[in-house]
């Protein structure tokens, strides 16, 4: 009998500990989820306001996004100054490591790039954000994928540079796919 008790007790205790941990994690999630969502929304709004000549952006809820493996379009915005902002998340060195708002004017040229978050390698990949003159500024005023590909990346941050370029190309493609909706509204 003692042998069965010794065999059953550790799994029962472990199951109890796991159940308590699950309850505590669920409670922490319910307490913090609204704050996390509010902080994420605030970061996006701050990024949108960081675009050159940014007005008051309104979200376009019904839009078409191109399919790419390494870039996801999260949202599409338009302001009263005829500027479009495309919120993109791209893979750099880290999966989903670059989240940015790409501004595009009514003619389809990049007006600017404002970062929501960059979780790339500190000191290397983060240069796409901390040193915009190395790449992000070079992408401003461009309007074609070929021009974007022709821009030099940042030495030592090859994956992050490619990720940012892919994000900008995807933003331009999103603009082209939704041009009628953007310019008519």
Shape: elongated
| Count of helical stretches | 6
Average residue pLDDT: 91
Q: In terms of structural class, how would the helical and strand content be classed?
A: alpha+beta
Q: Kindly estimate the percentage of residues that lie in beta strands according to DSSP.
A: 15-25%
Terminal-residue CA separation: 77 Å
In this structure, how is the largest beta sheet organized? Answer: 5 strands, antiparallel
Could you give a quick summary of the protein structure above?
The protein is 48% helix and 18% strand.
Task: Give a verbal description of the structure.
Helices cover about 50% and strands about 20% of the residues. The protein has 6 helices and 5 strands. It has helices spanning about 1-50, 125-130, 135-140, 145-150, 160-175, 180-185, and strands at about 60, 70-80, 85-90, 100-105, 110-120. It has a 5-stranded antiparallel sheet, with helices on both faces. A hairpin with a 7-residue loop joins strand 3 and strand 4 (about 100-105). The radius of gyration is 22 Å and the shape is elongated. The mean pLDDT is about 90.
Give a topology summary.
Layout: H1 2-49, E1 58-60, E2 71-78, E3 84-90, E4 98-104, E5 110-118, H2 127-130, H3 136-139, H4 145-150, H5 158-177, H6 179-184
Antiparallel strand pairs: 1-2, 2-3, 3-4, 4-5
Keywords:
185 residues, alpha+beta
């Amino acid at each position: 009998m003692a042998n069965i008790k010794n065999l059953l007790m550790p799994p029962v205790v472990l199951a109890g500990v796991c159940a308590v941990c699950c309850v505590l994690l669920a409670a922490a999630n319910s307490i913090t989820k609204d704050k996390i969502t509010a902080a994420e929304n605030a970061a996006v709004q701050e990024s949108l306001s960081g675009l050159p000549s940014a007005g008051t952006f309104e979200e376009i809820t019904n839009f078409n996004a191109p399919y790419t493996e390494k870039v996801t379009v999260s949202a599409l915005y338009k302001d009263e100054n005829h500027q479009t902002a495309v919120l993109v998340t791209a893979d750099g060195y880290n999966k989903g490591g670059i989240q940015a708002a790409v501004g595009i004017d009514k003619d389809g040229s990049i007006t600017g790039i404002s970062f929501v978050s960059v979780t790339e390698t500190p000191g290397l990949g983060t240069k796409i954000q901390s040193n915009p003159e190395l790449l992000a500024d070079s992408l401003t005023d461009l309007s074609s994928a070929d021009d974007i590909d022709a821009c030099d990346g940042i030495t030592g941050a090859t994956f992050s540079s490619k990720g940012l370029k892919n994000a900008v190309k995807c933003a331009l493609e999103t603009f082209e796919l939704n041009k009628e909706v953007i310019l008519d509204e």
